[in-house]
């Protein structure tokens, strides 16, 4: 059995080390997206600070514009191939710590970007083009997504939760985001029991469980987040989890990123992890 | 790509219309399991599923509680009774009965009124099974038998016969009917029953249980136990009793029939293999 399409794209992880000015994140994105990937997975930078995902035969691409607001705050704008803004707000912002800065890790590929700012309360931002296999990715249209959090254009923490995405719902005229936990994502695939019958993402024998990160909007299934999985919320941010990615014994490593999972309902608490090995 | 393991077990499907006595159901179930399905008759009505290579089995005892009342007792491999449940048909109606069986599963769906669905009297079900533990080995743990039914032994219709509820052993021998199956899309409005291209989505019916103490983290949490063989969760807008064809491998369609007597939940219903 081969790996699923959503796990078959190129991926890389770049640790920027201690970042004290978000200009280093923009530099890091340039290296991770434009300079370092192999041919076919390279992004371009048509305008300084605006990155365009690799050209595809089906015409899908996104643009990501990263702007330094201040030394400790960066803003992101994501647009789909038609120029429609995916994070349908002025922009989405992300902070690093003042004075000393903090570790920043970028996980990326031709169809996804994740920027993990490892503050004491981590702030993570992401965007991408979903894999819709076995259907074609671009028919009738592509599925673009971006995280609602960690911060809105006012710099206020907003929608900074696991599985909380901007998506375009069939019939809608603009991308929709919600600040609720996992509103556009199937984060919950465990029972909704509570109290002493709460469930977690471990097997009876102790094996950790993971699923694809499936994007949805109401009754519509929109696709899978490339190179990402949803695993148990008890996995610490920054930890690597290793899971089988096919039926041939091949393993993939995924790094738990900092989207909080703070809802009181145990069954929809989850941790998003992104491919790193 | 290969067929998921939980869809590779043996399976049979039998439908009889115009049934008015549960003894007919008991006889048909016997034929499907013992005569044709490799089950064994242990006496006193107890039928044992085929013992697999991991030495797993379950016992099912059907009984006629009344002409229109079917009783099912499910015991696990330790002899622990997992459930004693009932389903019934409407006395004045002729029932459409669907029996789904295999090495690891048994569903009996009694439909008295095809115009209605899982509500009391209109469509009721008793079912049981053994879970597929893969990708872990099938000997990984001993909590693998489940069961449930539309009514209790007092013939009271159960409010806990949705597909997400089932009787299993939790934390040693504490048998209980719990909300133990994984719900799809509890984050806000997430449901995702069809793709942008209009295709339906299907998920396995997966169970959590406290287990028999193999791995308990101290908080009595339920852990993943396995998935039901030959069973899918399907879009609830499909009609009860519908026959649907699902690709279970590249270019391999398989027929499933939607079980009418198990209540829907979270916009999903249960369908069982029927080809």
Describe this structure in words.
The complex is a heterodimer of chains A (277) and B (275). Chain A has 277 residues and is mainly beta. Chain A has a domain at 5-187 and 218-227. Chain A is 5% helix and 36% strand. Chain A is globular and about 50 Å long. In chain A, 52% of the residues are buried. Chain B is mainly β and 275 residues long. Chain B has one domain (5-273). Chain B has 1 helix and 18 strands. In chain B, strands 1, 7, 8, 9, 10, 14, 15, 16, 17 and 18 form a 10-stranded antiparallel sheet that branches. Chain B has a 5-stranded antiparallel sheet with strand order 2-3-4-5-6, with helices on one face. In chain B, strands 11-12 form a two-stranded antiparallel ribbon. Chain B starts with 11 loop residues before the first strand and ends with a strand. Chains A and B meet through strand 12, strand 13 and strand 14 of A and strand 13, strand 14 and strand 15 of B. Strand 14 of chain A pairs parallel with strand 13 of chain B.
How would you summarize what this structure contains?
The complex is a heterodimer of chains A (277) and B (275). Chain A is mostly beta strands and 277 residues long.
Task: State the main characteristics.
heterodimer; A: 277 residues; mainly beta; 1 helix; 17 strands; B: 275 residues; ten-stranded antiparallel sheet; five-stranded antiparallel sheet; 44% strand
């Amino acid at each position: 059995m081969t790996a699923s399409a959503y796990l078959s794209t190129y991926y890389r992880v770049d640790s920027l080390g201690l970042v004290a000015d978000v200009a280093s994140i923009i530099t890091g994105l340039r290296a991770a997206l434009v300079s370092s990937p192999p041919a076919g997975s390279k992004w371009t930078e048509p305008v300084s600070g605006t990155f365009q995902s690799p050209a595809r035969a089906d015409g899908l691409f996104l643009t990501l514009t990263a702007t330094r607001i201040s030394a400790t705050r960066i803003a992101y704008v994501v647009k789909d191939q038609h120029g429609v803004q995916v994070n349908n707000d002025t922009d989405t912002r992300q902070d690093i710590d003042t004075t000393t800065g903090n570790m920043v890790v970028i996980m990326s590929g031709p169809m996804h970007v994740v920027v993990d700012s490892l503050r004491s309360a981590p702030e993570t931002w992401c965007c991408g083009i979903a894999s819709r296999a076995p259907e074609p990715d671009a028919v009738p249209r592509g599925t673009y997504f971006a995280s609602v959090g960690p911060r809105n254009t006012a710099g206020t923490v907003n929608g900074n939760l696991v599985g909380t995405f901007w998506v375009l719902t069939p019939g809608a005229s603009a991308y929709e985001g919600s600040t609720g936990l996992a509103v556009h994502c199937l984060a919950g695939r465990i029972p909704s029991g509570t109290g002493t019958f709460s469930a977690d993402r471990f097997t009876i024998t102790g094996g950790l469980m993971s699923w694809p990160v499936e994007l949805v909007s109401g009754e519509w299934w929109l696709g899978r987040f490339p190179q990402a999985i949803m695993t148990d919320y008890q996995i610490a941010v920054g930890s690597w989890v290793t899971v089988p990615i096919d039926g041939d014994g091949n393993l993939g490593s995924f790094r738990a990123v900092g989207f909080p999972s703070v809802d009181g309902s145990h069954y929809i608490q989850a941790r998003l992890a992104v491919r790193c090995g | 790509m290969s067929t998921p393991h939980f869809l590779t077990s043996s399976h049979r499907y039998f439908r009889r219309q115009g049934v008015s006595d549960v003894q007919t159901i008991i006889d048909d179930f016997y034929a499907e399991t013992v005569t044709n399905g490799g089950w064994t008759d242990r006496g006193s009505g107890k039928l044992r599923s085929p013992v697999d290579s991991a030495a797993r089995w379950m016992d099912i005892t059907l009984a006629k509680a009344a002409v229109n009342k079917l009783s099912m007792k499910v015991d696990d491999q330790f002899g622990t009774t997992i459930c004693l449940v009932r389903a019934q048909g409407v006395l004045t109606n002729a029932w459409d009965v669907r029996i789904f069986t295999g090495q690891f599963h048994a569903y009996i769906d009694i439909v008295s009124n095809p115009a209605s669905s899982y509500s009391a009297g209109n469509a009721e079900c008793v079912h049981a099974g053994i879970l597929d533990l893969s990708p872990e080995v099938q000997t990984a743990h001993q909590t693998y038998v489940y069961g449930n039914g539309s009514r209790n032994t007092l013939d009271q219709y159960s409010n806990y016969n949705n597909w997400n509820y089932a009787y299993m052993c939790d934390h040693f021998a504490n048998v209980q009917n719990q909300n133990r199956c994984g719900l799809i899309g509890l984050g806000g409005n997430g449901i995702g029953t069809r793709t942008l291209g209009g295709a339906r989505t299907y998920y396995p019916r997966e169970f959590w249980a406290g287990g028999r103490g193999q791995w308990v983290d101290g908080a009595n949490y339920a852990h993943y136990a396995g998935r039901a063989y030959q069973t899918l969760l399907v879009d609830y807008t499909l009609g009860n009793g519908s026959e649907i064809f699902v690709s279970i491998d590249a270019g391999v369609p398989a027929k499933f029939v939607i079980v009418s007597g198990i209540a829907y939940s979270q916009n999903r219903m249960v369908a069982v293999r029927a080809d």
